[in-house]
């Protein structure tokens, strides 16, 4: 399945309009986070169901609102997007591994997968706009501890879908992604299947240490390409866990470097 936004007119591609629309988008994101924390999630917690059902409701609600947020940014001309292979996402025990070029690529992926779990950075647990949703959804804090690895592997063993960014932080513009071995270790311990998602952003935006108001001169295009599944057990058979983890991490690292360096013509922008 391929999802794409239509090409918009040059009038909607105007710099100052996009700057205003970007500001509105960030304001909407913050207000949505507060509304989730103070109103929507407390109301959902009053509905019948056990803890697992409550968690699923929270994740589905966050996913739907995330996708509405992406559609708002697309409709207002902030960005365009293309998703190839979305139907392969959201399977039980699936570990979705993606590079991390921009602040909002995680919002895209959570919006695409209605019931997913996600390893998120520790600071989101203290942020007043995000701490309510991430706690209600029981996302996993990327605090670098052994408990984090256990929780992530356990989620996969329970049949959850899990999104992981092996870089741990956003990619430095102009540099190749650097993968930490923790993602590979999680996959070997719990994943039934690994599915890579290669994310390209042109021109770059919302990179590390870049303020929201520093928008590019032209509209941003996000491209998500869901790759072929990878069987973690084929790497588990290579030897002891540390060796298997290193081999899997190297394979994923080289895979993403190769895909990100591929000719842009292999991943075209939507036609007018």
TrEMBL record:
Keywords: Acyltransferase, Transferase. It comes from the Bacteria. The keyword Transferase applies. One of its GO terms (biological process) is phosphatidic acid biosynthetic process. Signal peptide: none annotated. GO terms for molecular function: 1-acylglycerol-3-phosphate O-acyltransferase activity. Pfam families: Acyltransferase. The keyword Acyltransferase applies. Residues 94-202 form the Phospholipid/glycerol acyltransferase domain. Pathway: Lipid metabolism. PANTHER family: 1-ACYL-SN-GLYCEROL-3-PHOSPHATE ACYLTRANSFERASE (PTHR10434), PHOSPHOLIPID_GLYCEROL ACYLTRANSFERASE DOMAIN-CONTAINING PROTEIN (PTHR10434:SF66). This is 1-acyl-sn-glycerol-3-phosphate acyltransferase. It comes from Pseudomonas batumici. The lineage of its organism: Bacteria, Pseudomonadati, Pseudomonadota, Gammaproteobacteria, Pseudomonadales.
């Amino acid at each position: 399945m391929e999802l794409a936004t239509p090409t918009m007119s040059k009038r909607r591609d105007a710099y100052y309009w996009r700057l205003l629309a970007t500001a509105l988008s960030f304001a909407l994101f913050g207000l949505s986070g507060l509304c989730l924390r103070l109103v929507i999630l407390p109301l959902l917690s009053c509905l019948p169901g056990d803890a697992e059902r409550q968690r699923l409701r929270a994740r589905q609600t966050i996913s739907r609102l995330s996708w509405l947020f992406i559609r708002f940014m697309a409709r207002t001309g902030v960005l365009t997007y293309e998703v190839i292979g979305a139907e392969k996402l959201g399977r039980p025990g699936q570990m979705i591994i993606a590079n991390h070029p921009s602040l909002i690529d995680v919002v895209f992926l959570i919006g695409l997968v209605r019931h997913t779990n996600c390893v998120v950075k520790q600071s989101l647990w203290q942020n007043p706009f995000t701490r309510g949703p991430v706690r209600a959804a029981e996302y996993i804090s990327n605090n670098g501890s052994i408990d984090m690895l256990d929780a992530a592997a356990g989620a996969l063993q329970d049949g959850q879908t899990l999104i992981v960014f092996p870089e741990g932080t956003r990619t430095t513009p102009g540099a190749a992604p650097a993968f930490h071995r923790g993602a590979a270790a999680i996959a070997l311990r719990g994943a039934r299947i690994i599915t890579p998602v290669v994310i390209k952003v042109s021109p770059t935006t919302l990179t590390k240490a870049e303020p929201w108001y520093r928008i590019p001169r032209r509209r941003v295009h996000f491209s998500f390409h869901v790759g072929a599944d990878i069987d973690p057990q084929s790497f588990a058979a290579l030897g002891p866990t540390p060796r298997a983890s290193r081999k899997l991490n190297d394979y994923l690292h080289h895979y993403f470097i190769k895909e990100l360096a591929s000719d842009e013509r292999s991943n075209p922008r939507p036609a007018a």
